[in-house]
Amino acid sequence: MVACCRSAPGRGRSGRAIHRLNRRACAPALGWRVKKNGSDQAIGRSRGGLTTKIHACVDALGNPLRLILTGGQVADITQGPALINSIKTDAVVADKGYDSHVFVAVITETGAEAVIPSRSNRCASREFDRERYKARNLVERFFNRLKQFRRLATRYDKLANRFNAFLHLACAYIWLL
Fold first, then answer.
1. Which domains does the chain have, with CATH numbers?
2. CA–CA separation, 176 vs 27, rounded Å?
3. C-alpha of 176 from chain center
4. pLDDT of 1 above 50
5. Which of 38, 57, 144, 164 could form a disulfide with 66, with the two C-beta atoms 3.0–4.6 Å apart?
6. Is the Cβ–Cβ distance between 36 and 28 less than 8 Å?
7. Which molecular function terms from Gene Ontology are attached (predicted)?
8. Max Cα separation, the chain?
9. β-bridge mates for residue 70, sequence order
10. How many helices (H) does the chain have, and how many strands (E)?
């Protein structure tokens, strides 16, 4: 007569699981930590991986006026009207990502000139002032100044409100220079 006191594999005599016998690479995820609900991260998946887009509006000197954070998959044109809302200007200079009939109509309603080149797939290209379009490098230089802050360039902060807070701190530093 053979007495066997074995239970199911990976379980002790009391019937509870023995974690070291479960042959896992790490401890089981049983939900022991507190989960955060509703924390906006503004991280989106694009071709380059997980990214965050900073949509910016700058003045004629390259100083930031308005900043909006979105996930990396969000198109530029979706934030265009929010960027220029209630800003008085003679011209709005933007790249091809902001080319749409609706956005140009919003710009002309405010009495400003839309200096946006047409996309290559547009049926009828729109004329724009090439000399005024050269001022768009102010936006590019602003983003290059932001990239000097390593915390922004590598996205150390997980939550969008913390990332946005440091972004505004960096913009205040740029305003002071």
1. 44-176 (3.30.420)
2. 50
3. 25
4. no
5. 57
6. no
7. DNA binding; transposase activity
8. 99
9. 53
10. 6, 5
- Output the pTM of the full model: 0.73
Tokens 């004329």, located at residue? 127
* Whether the predicted pLDDT of 170 surpasses 70: yes
What are the residues facing 115 on neighbouring strands? Answer: 93
Which of 135, 168, 172 has its CA nearest to residue 60?
135
> Per residue, what are the HEC states of the chain?
CCCCCCCCCCECCCCCECHHHCCCCCCCCCCCCCCCCCCCCCCEEECCEEEEEEEEEECCCCCEEEEEEEECCCCHHHHHHHHHCCCCCCEEECCHHHCCHHHHHHHHHCCCEEECCCCCCCCCCCCCCHHHHHHHHHHHHHHHHHCCCHHHHCCCCCCHHHHHHHHHHHHHHHHHC
- In single-letter form, the type of residue at position 7 comes to S
